[in-house]
Design goal:
single chain, 220 residues, mainly beta, Protocatechuate 3,4-Dioxygenase, subunit A, 6% helix
Length: 220
């Protein structure tokens, strides 16, 4: 992943476009119409690798809790799901910094107490979206909690899997949060399994209205 979205770009994505449209098919309910669809679909300025290419997002453990078949929806946390509401938005790009449309992004996570839930009938805290024409995507969820392994605590994280239209997995990774005391050497899951010391996958949580917001550029 390169640098995260400039603040103005995040506000453009979130304030000028229907978030359901950003996340594309949102079979579980849209995030609400916040205004007209933007006409400027350009990506924000990217941090380059010196050769004019975007730096790829690093991978991380799939973990034991992924389940196939999560519904197409941008709202993965029900309105009554306990926890701090989180709007996670971003842009998916290729190594040449071009936006990737029509790609599937699966998200799954623990609840606010650090527990994962079986998919069941409602796929609690699980869902997927298809990236828009400008590579944009968004999820309405809650901030996940920490949990304990036998080897120690894990930092709070979101799991992401990016797949192409043919269903081929392009990336499996985890996104963490600034200020979590269990990052890096304090993580109960260490390399070569987990890599919570990657600063490019550690997101700032920014208060805005009744929720927190986080943004990322994912590069595959």
């Amino acid at each position: 992943m390169t640098d995260r979205l400039p603040r103005r770009e995040l506000l453009r994505l979130l304030g000028l476009a229907p978030l359901g449209a950003l996340a594309c098919g949102d079979g579980g309910g849209s995030l609400g119409d916040l205004g007209p669809t933007p006409t400027d679909s350009s990506l924000p300025d990217a941090a380059l690798d010196g050769g004019g290419a975007c730096l790829p997002t690093s991978s991380d453990a799939l973990g034991p809790f992924f389940e196939a078949g999560a519904p197409d929806r941008s709202s993965v946390a029900a309105a009554d799901e306990p926890g701090d509401r989180l709007l996670f938005a971003g842009v998916l790009a290729d190594l040449g910094c071009a936006p990737l449309a029509g790609m599937r992004i699966d998200l799954w996570q623990a609840d606010a107490s650090g527990h994962y839930h079986d998919a069941g009938a409602d796929f609690r805290l699980r869902g997927h979206v298809i990236t828009g024409a400008d590579g944009s995507f968004a999820f309405d969820t809650i901030v996940p909690g920490n949990y304990e392994l036998a080897s120690g605590p894990r930092p709070a994280h979101l799991h992401l899997r990016v797949s192409d239209p043919a269903g081929v997995s392009r990336l499996v990774t985890q996104l963490y949060f600034t200020g979590d005391p269990h990052l890096g050497d304090a993580d109960g899951c260490q390399p070569p399994t987990c890599f919570s010391n990657d600063p490019e996958r550690i997101l700032d949580l920014v208060p805005m209205g009744d929720r927190l917001m986080a943004d990322a550029r994912i590069v595959v």
